Queue: 2 jobs
Job 1
Amino acid sequence: MNSYDAIVIGGGIQGCSVAYNLADNGLKVLVLEKDYCGRHASGVNAGGVRRLGRDLRELELSDFSMKEYWHKLDSFLDEDCEYEKVPQIKIAMDEEALEFSKNRVEQVKAMGFEHEQLIDTSTLKNFVPDVSDKALGAILVEDDGHANPFKTTVAIKHKAIKYGVSIREGEKVLDIKGDDKTSWKVTTDKDVFNAKYIINCAGAWGDKIAKMFGEDVPFEAVCLLLSITSKIDLFLKPVIGFQRRALSLKQFSNGSLMIGGAFKGSLNLETNETIVDFTQIARNVSNATELFPKLKNAKIVRSWGGIEAICEDKIPIISKSSKYETVIHNFGYSAHGFQPAFGSGKIVSQMLLDQKLSINNVDEFRINRFV
Ligand SMILES: Cc1cc2nc3c(=O)[nH]c(=O)nc-3n(C[C@H](O)[C@H](O)[C@H](O)COP(=O)(O)OP(=O)(O)OC[C@H]3O[C@@H](n4cnc5c(N)ncnc54)[C@H](O)[C@@H]3O)c2cc1C
């Protein structure tokens, strides 16, 4: 009863997406999640569905995910995830940021992607009339968007279950023994399972699972902060970022705003505790009010932290193990792993089953760059 073709460790959006894709290929799949699906980064992030400003090394994956999944979400997921296709805009407030933006758009175009465009201040004002008069221009992506991260993670979890995936929540993987020739034996705090394949989707705990296979990656788990304001008049449809400075800002239809930008609190990985640092929140809010002076009247009503996996070079590991053909690592999304998750689920299953990959640029994500 406890034998599976594949065991996925971690029930975040990555693990659920991988599990669905493997089940769609006919595999008997088990997801082991130590808390509950969406409890960590996948369920508490900013919900940014953006290609704007993506690391160039992950642009192809992000674009694949956007065009094949997000832009066709109604036919992919059966549940409402509050996904909205809206512009994402990154604003330059000084000459250096403007120059950086121009170069960035050229680089993206040179790679064959057309989604980013440079806009001047008058076009910017058409999208965001309340922006500070000090804004010099921006990069615009018209068909990015945002979604509710928890609902999205639960929707892909439900899709995985519909395709036959078993999910055991509240069950922590403690040990893995085996090799490519025999099956893997996975011991949790409740049971023992066997599988031919293991997929490590353990997010900020991914390095601990990698170590069980003798692979040591340079890695940090961080607590990223987000805040919600009181409701104010609707004035902002696009999602806003600040070029060369830390900010993400969006307004919900009820008038409240979400403010983030990778400011950090502290955390305890053993207890899941995250602690908000209000000096960081103050810096975050000050970036927001610099761009939109009218926000000075809004109040912060709630702040929280989410635990995220940061690789040393700020892009994920999506790779067969350096030691075992039957093990795949898929973690370390470094604060941008929500949007690409549907695409990476597909790529990981293709990798595992030695199928032709839907994208070309995967070498950058190999674990061999570290071990
Ligand atoms: C505040 C914040 C804002 C963000 N904003 C955005 C954004 O706007 N857009 C974007 O694209 N990305 C964003 N991100 C990043 C994104 O949320 C993550 O990169 C993504 O959710 C990672 O998904 P995951 O499934 O790899 O990790 P997780 O969601 O962390 O899932 C990993 C799971 O593995 C489980 N696990 C770990 N160890 C074990 C074990 N031993 N046994 C069993 N289970 C285990 C954990 O409990 C966890 O549930 C943000 C992140 C944060 C924190």
Job 2
Amino acid sequence: MAEARAPQKSLPKINKVDQPYWEGAAAGKLLLQKCKSCGKVQFFPRVACVDCFSELDWIESKGTGKVHTFTLVRVPRNPAFKEEVPIYYINVILDEGVIMESRLVGDAKEKVKLGDRVKVVFQQTHDPNIKLPCFELAN
Ligand SMILES: [Zn+2]
């Protein structure tokens, strides 16, 4: 008879394209891609510039931005997260101009309003090699 397994928290499936992004996060750096030709900054990691298909460099974000939108999750799809509810999912407009989906964390998160300034923090996962870029209110 099979034993019931405790639910596992999901982790990113790291591939060749986004590996530098996750290595940066593990080192406490939020990395974005910048086009070597047109200079466009983009997130999430892709193989080429979405505007001109040129090669990309990695740049370090300042890790600051503002809350574009947010929602609260009170019943997570994955039961492994049920002790963390409510989970604050946010879209952040980074100061580099790209929008990033993430989580708002920290003691002050209940006070979040649209447009609030945020700064990146890195949360350790149960995998010692993976940290998740999250955000805290900065004001
Ligand atoms: Zn480009």
